[in-house]
Amino acid sequence: MALVPYERNSMPALSKLHDVSAEFHFANRRLRLSQDWNRLGVAAVVWDAAVVLCMYLELGHIELWGKVAIELGAGTGLVGIVAALLGAKVTITDRAPAIDFLCTNVKENIPPEQQGAALVKELTWGKNLELYQKGGYDIILGADIVYLEETFSALLQTLEYLSSDRTLVLLACRIRYERDQKFLDMLRTRFIVQEVHYDVQKDIHIYKAVKTKYEL
Ligand SMILES: C[S@@+](CC[C@H](N)C(=O)[O-])C[C@H]1O[C@@H](n2cnc3c(N)ncnc32)[C@H](O)[C@@H]1O
Questions:
Q1: Tens digit of pLDDT for each residue in 69-103?
Q2: CATH of the domain spanning 12-215, picked from 3.90.550.10, 3.30.365.10, 3.40.50.150, 3.40.50.300
Q3: Any coiled-coil ranges, and where (predicted)?
Q4: Which residues touch 159 (CB under 8 Å, ≥6 apart)?
Q5: Ligand 1 mean position to 58 CA, how many Å?
């Protein structure tokens, strides 16, 4: 599952993935996300795409207040947590092995009076989608979830299932390999896709996708 297999200390820029926690300041709060690369791998570290997506959400281009949102492949949950703190009602999802860790991070970073704004739930792309409301979300969020070619069809199926004609999909991506571009091509067969932000320093693209042209 590792995106960037490496020996600790051989690539200093990546050693932050081994830190037991990562700290951020978003939505007027100091957030401290626990990390555990050795136990859970990619799902238990904060990726740059999540940080850039949170920065983008904080800019306020997208109205979050009162919106019903879902985060796919949430990992530590940073994006979903920030979306909830910015006023959305968010279902924060990932595969089963990541759920306990995700719950802990959500509980520790959202104040008790706002806990109701975030629900953590298992969602493996393409599986048991009937447990979710078809087309029931205003906003779908995903950070660094385009990286496993074998999941591309299921991920696209999930995005289509959860989206109505009024849903806005926001994907923050680092394009590492040609195959990642292939997912964007697949996405374009079902959605209208537009790049809305590029973070040069972190090399992260944010794409906005909607089913109909009226939402862009
Ligand atoms: C690179 S991590 C990104 C985590 C987080 N979004 C971030 O940016 O910090 C990819 C995430 O996708 C999740 N994932 C991978 N395959 C999945 C699948 N088939 N269904 C649901 N989630 C999946 C992983 O568990 C992991 O949390």
A1: 999 999 999 999 999 999 999 999 999 999 999 99
A2: 3.40.50.150
A3: none
A4: 72, 140, 169, 187, 190, 191, 209
A5: 22
